[in-house]
Amino acid sequence: MINPLRGMKDLTFDESQRFVHIVTTATNIAKKYGYGYIETPILEETALFKRSVGESSDIVGKEMYQFEDKGGNDVCMRPEGTAGVVRAFIHGKLDRQPVKQKFYYYGPMFRYERPQKGRLREFHQFGCESFGEGSVYEDFTIIIMISQIFSELGIGFDLQINSLGCVECMPPYKQNLVGFLRETQEELCEDCNRRIDTNPIRVLDCKNATCQSLLADSPKLIHNLCISCDSDFIKLTGLLDKAGIKYQIDTNLVRGLDYYNKTAFEFVSNEIGSQSAIAGGGRYDKLVEFLDGKPTPAVGFAIGIERIMELVKMPEVTREGIYLGAMTEEAIEALFPVATAKRKETKVTLEYASKGFKSHMKGADKVNARYCVLIGEKELENGTVWVKDLETKEETTISIEAF
Ligand code: HAM
């Protein structure tokens, strides 16, 4: 027997239904906020992720499914969705159109991480990317939209937010932070020591307890923002307060991808163990430009579908559609035109084997049909069908044409 690869799984039965319910719910909400569907390739040039997610990030440094294809190209299975959408946005010259553009997507992402509960090597995201809107009202709208998706799915969450500043306030802060880190260097873990030179901001979200306690006294970007970033952050928190959305400001929230500026956020759940982030996102105003497009502000998010799968409250299952069965061999063929006609309106299960009454009733129950419709010798002769409503228990015999 051939098993799936480590960290990859099949979604069947209950899980696949949950998957469809999550995607349908999120899609319906995203459409109401003006998002249109975008599909981009799973395989992209490795350079795309190096330049966007960042060479010094763990995703690019350690976790990419990267290989040379038969044509000698350095390619990579996408570890996340934003980079591909931005590439498509630029490639399609959408950055040159005056209208704002909003896209939603869902699909598989690949990260060669150490698998554990909630952490897969192939997982699925539902994401949204909004291009051309620099106003912090859009950041707020996106947070409202995610809250609405989780609330419709019956999922509770905590929201953590931070500001990562901009090209004006981030560089002096970084310098300041590096100064602080150098002073405590000897006590910091190996990873943090490496990051002081490669990506000092990432030191802030080190999970090591000693590092975290040392970082308690580190300078905070939130206290060193430029006027524009500061007023946007104050506006955002004010809007969240007015909307009654609870949040915590987490000054160590830096996200694992390098493209963010200003607003960064994560939705977490305390019901799913250590891999608690169920959605993440933020603003990335420089990425389009950085990937050779026209300067375009942008903001987006992605939800981890597997992480919320067991949290979703599924709608109650109700009886649906028709079960069609024949009690004689000759009657089976008479059911095909009925099935074809009815399938234009509802779900139809057609049993190909002629069976007794009890066996058909069991079959109708198994597929959770609302109506059990049977045809036997007598019905075939009279051109009728026997119908039982399995909810009201009413029974009738009517002509095939009228059915
Ligand atoms: P991310 O935080 O790396 O952001 O991923 C978003 C979500 O994907 C996470 O919150 C988590 O629920 C899920 N996730 C990540 N890694 C795994 C894994 N190994 N196994 C299972 N689930 C996982 C991004 O990917 C950004 N592209 C989000 C974004 C869109 N920012 C702006 N636009």
Core attributes:
about 400 residues; alpha+beta; Rossmann fold; 2 domains; 8-stranded mixed beta sheet; 5-stranded mixed beta sheet; 14 helices; binds histidyl-adenosine monophosphate
Characterise this structure.
The protein is an alpha+beta fold. It has 2 domains: 13-169 and 225-311, Bira Bifunctional Protein, Domain 2 (BirA Bifunctional Protein, domain 2, 2-Layer Sandwich); 322-399, Anticodon-binding domain (Rossmann fold), CATH 3.40.50. Helices cover 37% and strands 22% of the residues. It has helices at 13-32, 46-54, 58-62, 82-91, 136-152, 170-184, 190-198, 209-215, 227-243, 287-290, 305-309, 329-342, 357-366, 377-382; strands at 36-37, 43-45, 65-68, 74-77, 101-110, 122-131, 158-163, 248-249, 261-268, 277-283, 298-304, 322-326, 348-350, 371-375, 384-389, 395-399. An 8-stranded mixed sheet has the order 1-5-6-11-10-9-7-8. The protein has a 5-stranded mixed sheet with strand order 13-12-14-15-16, with helices on both faces. A 3-stranded antiparallel sheet has the order 2-4-3. A hairpin with a 5-residue loop joins β3 (65-68) and β4. α1 (13-32) packs antiparallel against α5 and α5 (136-152) packs parallel to α9. The longest helix is centred in the first third of the chain and has 20 residues, at 13-32. It starts with 12 loop residues before the first helix and ends with a strand. The mean pLDDT is 96. It binds histidyl-adenosine monophosphate. The site of histidyl-adenosine monophosphate has 25 residues, from β6, β10, β11 and α11.
